[in-house]
Every structure is written in structure tokens, then in C-alpha cells.
């Protein structure tokens, strides 16, 4: 499984990269095609359509100019008054329409076609001016003859040239419309193919991820079962060791007590017996520490409750003599009654480890003192154990709650499991631990445990009543 993990992750990464690349290519292609379609649509709206509109208007004005010029010549023949206003206006409208057309961009071949229009317009303007000159100088018959011969042909040729320009723009309109339709169809097909590939790669990546997750979950479950089995075996082993070790030690301690009572004061054997009794107590403490550490991961009972004052009072009976023997002062600051959500045994183990640890590391301080204080921390009870020892070096400060970490100045032998047991027990009960230390001035070890609930208090009352 572990050997196959890199190849599985590589396949998963490749599938995700392919899906992302397909989506990116699809988006880029769609954007490119959209830009082409926008450009064609813009050309249609801003060039081709206006060109056709202006050319059509010019062609209409051209025919209107032809009709007005014919009427003017006929009026001259009949001797009627001549009015050039409408004719001049029509010629101006023709010029404006053509000027507006010339401002627009040109399509391929359009410039060549416009040269034809310019040539025909030049001949038309020249013949029109000649007709107007003949009319103005009293030669209407010559003007009619010129109109019927050269000028009619000029109007027709110019109209055809303008019409050719209109058809050229119309061809470009048809071509761009076909390109837009083709681009839309092509982009739709390619985008569909790329999106299909993207979805396929995404599904492949999801399938690979699901397979990997399933395998990891199965592996974690197996490891969890194995760890749980090993934890159970460790706890059973610790219990057997405690029983097997403490049983014979109890018999030895009893025998030493009996021998000590039979020895009179001042006998050399009495000192050896006392030394043996102390060695047995140390072995018992080490064994108890191992057992507590092995069992520290157990979950607390929901109804667990421990009165802090009762636990501290019991500990003081045991630990004050130890402090006196070490030449240290051990005291508890006054505090209000409170209870924590833990069993009395758990709270006793945590406090005993912290207080013994503080006494153990007092070293050769000028003032040897350990102070226990209980504080209210809203939803929790905070208990601090402050000592006047040498403090803890910064290099060790982050490791003191790890197993087998000990300072070199300890007065009592041990395995370095006390603070590790404190941490495991506290966190298993939903609390937390910490440390404030100043090298050369001392340390404050603290822990917080949740306050006992009202249900736990009622359960404790029921238990006490039943016991009574």
C-alpha cells in the first residue's frame, strides 16, 4: 500500500491537472472565438451596414438630382421661372452621403471600386455644370440634347458604380454572417468536446481520490484497531506488572516493618532496614507512575466529580512531611469551595505529580517554597503549583510535558513520566496544562479542568446518601 502511494498520488495529480487544463483551454478557446464573433459583429454594425446605408442614400439622391435637372431644363424650354434651390440641395445631400461613406474603413477590393465611382462622378459633375451653363445662357435646346445624350449615360454609369459598391459591401456582410454562424457552430462543438473531456478528467480524479480516501480510511481503521489493541494490551500489562511487583513488595515491606519493631533503638540493622523501606516506597512510586501513564488515555465518566478541597487536604497530609524532610515549605492559599469534572483519583494523581515535581526540583534555592492556589476560570477550575526552584531552561521548556524528560537537579529518582501523565490525564478530561517559568526565580505549573456539572453534583449526593 505504501509503495503504491506515490503512483496513486501521481495519477490523481495528473487527472486534476488534465481537468484544469481542459477547462482552461475550453475557456481560452471560447474567449478567442467570442472575440472573433464580436469583431465580425462590430464590423457589420459599424462598417458594412452604414456603408450600404450611405451608398443607398447617395444612389437615391443621384436619381433625385437627375429628375430635378430634367425638370429645370424643361422649364427653361417652356420659358418658366428657374429655381436652382432644390437641385443644389439634392447635390449637397449626394456629397454628404458620399463623404460619410468615405470616413468608414474599407474592405478588400472596395478602394478599387470607389475609384470607378469617383471617375463616373467626375464626368457627371462636368456634364451637369455644362447643362446648367447652357440653361443660364439661353440655350435650352442644346441643354436638352446634352441631357438626352451624354448626361443620361453619366447618371446611369454613376448609379451602376454606386450599386457595385453596395453589392461589394453586401457580399462582405454575407461572408461575415456565414463566418459568425460557422464560428458559433465550431466553437460550440469544440467547447462541448473540451468540457466533456474536462468532466471526464474531473470524474477520473474524483474516482482516484475516492479510491485513495477509501484505502486511507481502511488503513487508518486498521491502525486504529491495532493501536487500540496495543493500548488494551499495554494497560493489561501495566496492571499485571503493578500487581506482580507490588504484591511481593507488600510482603517485603511488612517483613521490614516487623523487623524494625523488633530492633531496638541504635542498632546498626535498624538503619539498613529503614533504607530498605525507603527503597521499596520508591519502587512503589515508580510502579504507580507507570500504571497511571499507561491508563492516562481513558475517557472520563460523565458523572465524574471531585471536590478540590477534599483532595488537596488529603494530599497535604501525605506531602507536608515530605516537604519538611526536604527542608521546604508547602502551603495552600485560601480558596472558595469548588469541584471539577474528574474523579478524585484523577485529580489526586495530577496534583500529586505536580507537587512532587515542584518539591523534587527545588534544588539549592535560598527559599524553598511550594505554593498551591486554586482560581476560578469561568467554566473551569485553574490550579497552580508555584515553586521557588531554579526555573526551566528555554531549550527544555517546550518538552517538559513529554515522556522521559527530566532535569538533572531532581532529588528523587524517577522515569520522567509525572508531567506527561499530568498532560494526558488533563487533556483526556477536556482540560489543558501550561507552564510559566523564569530561570533563577522559579516556575508555575498550572492545569485547568472543567467544572463539575449540576448532574454530577446530584449524582454525588445520591451516592453519598446511599453510602450513608
From TrEMBL:
Keyword vocabulary terms for this entry: ATP-binding, Kinase, Membrane, Nucleotide-binding, Phosphoprotein, Signal, Transferase, Transmembrane, Transmembrane helix, Two-component regulatory system
Which reaction equations make up its catalytic activity? Answer: ATP + protein L-histidine = ADP + protein N-phospho-L-histidine
Task: Read off the InterPro entries from this record.
Answer: BphY/WalK/GraS-like (IPR050351), HATPase_C_sf (IPR036890), HATPase_dom (IPR003594), His_kinase_dom (IPR005467), HisK_dim/P_dom (IPR003661), HisK_dim/P_sf (IPR036097), Sig_transdc_His_kin-like_C (IPR004358)
The record's listing under SMART domains reads: HATPase_c (SM00387), HisKA (SM00388)
Is ATP-binding tagged as a keyword? yes
Q: Tell me, which GO biological process terms does this entry list?
A: osmosensory signaling via phosphorelay pathway
One Pfam short name = HisKA
Query: Which top EC class is named for this enzyme in its record?
Result: transferase
Q: Membrane-spanning residues where?
A: 190-213
EC numbers, comma separated: 2.7.13.3
Question: Could you name the domain of life of the organism this protein comes from?
Answer: Bacteria
- Signal peptide range equals 1-27
Q: Listed GO molecular functions?
A: ATP binding; phosphorelay response regulator activity; phosphorelay sensor kinase activity; protein kinase activator activity
Enumerate the PROSITE patterns for this protein.
HIS_KIN (PS50109)
- Histidine kinase domain: residues covered: 240-453
Name of the protein: histidine kinase
